Amino acid sequence: MTDNLHDERLFAYKVRHALDHGIDNLDGITRNKLQAARQNALTHHKGKSAVVGLSLAGIGHFTSDILLPQARTLAALFALAIGVTGTYYWNNFQQAEENEEIDSALLADDLPINAYLDHGFHAWLEQPSEPSQSLQE
Q1: From 38, 64, 82, 106, which residue has the greatest number of CB atoms within 10 Å?
Q2: Could you tell me what percent of the chain has a pLDDT over 90?
Q3: Which CA distances in Å does 29 have to 32, 37, 65?
Q4: Using CB atoms within 10 A of its CB, is residue 41 exposed (0-12), middle (13-18) or buried (19+)?
Q5: Could you give phi then psi for residue 112, rounded to 5 degrees?
Q6: For residues 28 and 11, what is the distance between their CA atoms, to the nearest angstrom?
Q7: How far apart are CA 83 and CA 19, in angstroms?
Q8: Under a CB-based contact definition with an 8 Å cutoff, are residues 53 and 67 in contact?
């Protein structure tokens, strides 16, 4: 690994030396254009090589290239999911309150004392209620 790095640096040094040596033979306009192009390339290179955050096994790429452009959509979908879930639970609580009121009204209804003393009434109360029987009656 260090041999490759050393070879690359040696090659870069030789290329830079050759370019510096050849620049003496260029006219001023060409030198200015080359200098401007070099500055432009360095500016773009510095912007792309800056590390914004850690990139853990591709997670950084996934986050910056896929999730961030879609963040507004993901936030809207998350809010919609929370709203739907909240509405579902709210409706269940409302239904439970309505059933509680109905049960309280039925239990608070005044029955004659004979109904409480009737053995058949107690047997009827102990039977499990089936929806099909109540619809047929």
Answers
A1: 64
A2: 12
A3: 5, 12, 40
A4: exposed
A5: -65, 155
A6: 27
A7: 65
A8: no
Q: pLDDT, tens digit, for every residue of 31-40? A: 888 888 888 8
Q: What is the dihedral of CA 82, 86, 88, 94, to 10 degrees?
A: -170
CA 123/CA 115 separation, integer angstroms: 12
Calculated CA dihedral for residues 113, 117, 120, 126, nearest 10 degrees: 90
Residue 24 dihedral angles phi and psi, to the nearest 5°: -65, -25
- Cβ proximity of 55 and 61 under 8 Å: yes
The alpha carbon dihedral of 9, 12, 18, 19 has a sign of negative
